[in-house]
Amino acid sequence: MQSSAPAGSEHALFRQLLARCAQLAPVPTAVVHPTDPLSLEGAVDAARAGLILPILVGPEAKIRAAAQAADLDISTYRLEPTPHSHAAAARGVELVRSGEAGMLMKGALHTDELMHEVVASTTGLRTARRISHAFLMDVKDYPRPLVITDAAINVLPSLEDKRDIVQNAIDLAIVLGVPTPRVAILSAVETVTPKLPSTIDAAALCKMADRGQITGGLVDGPLAVDNAVSPEAAREKGIVSEVAGRADILVVPDLEAGNMLVKQLTFLAGAGAAGVVLGARVPVVLTSRADSPIERVASCAIGVLLIQSRPPVPA
User: Label partner for 6 (CA 20 to 30 A): which of 19, 72, 239, 250?
Assistant: First the structure.
């Protein structure tokens, strides 16, 4: 398997991820509705990098037209014809449940449509853990990998939801090579105040970690973004913490805050963002039309590492 990133990659962290996957077997992956050139290219790039064995699920004519438009040879890949995107999502989940696929990858359909099938109570891929999404950010000027969660799935998570979001992120960071992840629960301020419910949740999550309801990481909050990632900002505020200024994981209060934070880092700071859905029976790789080739491939690499390295989430 190739261990280097696609030509032109500027993201050293993502190249390191691919190198870690160099000796791992490619994972059969149901690529759901790859009916446009970008989503199909993402699957083919991941296959060429030795990360996945694509199973292309969707309308055959549209998939072949996308391959022709992108000048891609898909003749060696299994193709599972379905009439439309909803059927493709259902068939992709079915391939995982039958053991024919070990991972899901989103194609040219809306995230909600795919996740509807993933979370279905009787036919989906749910576990006892709340499903959440995490972005691994490759930020040039930050001295460590940075996980941001949840910026894609849970719109207004409850305290119970946030407990699972935090645990999912800790488990991911450990797989990525962080022995004891430092988790910053974000808000607008560093003190607990009833005027900001996110600060109440942050305090509760810290106590949950103290009591063993969250394990494997160091949890602190509420923290604002500046004193979560900047030692100087933490010192100026007089914050004494093992997490402040050195966070490995940023837990946002809701999806809007997370989405804005990820896009600010991506479009204003030139960061890379590779994402995966956690808490299901298998990793679900969500890609965006705005993703670069290295981001799409790195997302698959995270999924491969999770499958190879992480103990299964209890069903």
Answer: 250
Integer Rg of the chain from CA: 19
> Which residues, including other chains, have CB under 8 Å from residue 44's CB and lie 6 or more apart?
54, 72, 74
Q: For residues 101 and 108, give the distance between their C-alpha atoms in angstroms, rounded to a whole number.
A: 19
pLDDT digits (tens, 9 = 90+) for 22-49: 999 999 999 999 999 999 999 999 999 9
Domains of the chain plus CATH, in order, are: 10-126+280-306 (3.40.50.10950), 130-277 (3.40.718.10)
For residue 53 the two structure tokens come to 């064995």
Which CA distances in Å does 160 have to 155, 205, 277?
Answer: 14, 9, 18
CB atoms within 10 A of CB 108: 21
Query: Closest Cα partner for 21 from 3, 8, 47, 42?
Result: 3
Distance CA 191, CA 252 (A): 16
Give me 227's structure tokens: 């004193």
Report DSSP state, residue 110: -
Report pTM: 0.92
In sequence order, the β-bridge partners of residue 278 are 132
Note whether 95 and 88 are within 8 A (CB).
no
Q: In what order do the strands lie in the sheet with 132-138?
A: 78-81, 52-58, 27-32, 103-106, 284-285, 272-278, 132-138, 146-149, 249-251, 182-186, 218-223
Q: How far is CA 20 from CA 8, 46, 85, 222, in A?
A: 19, 14, 33, 34
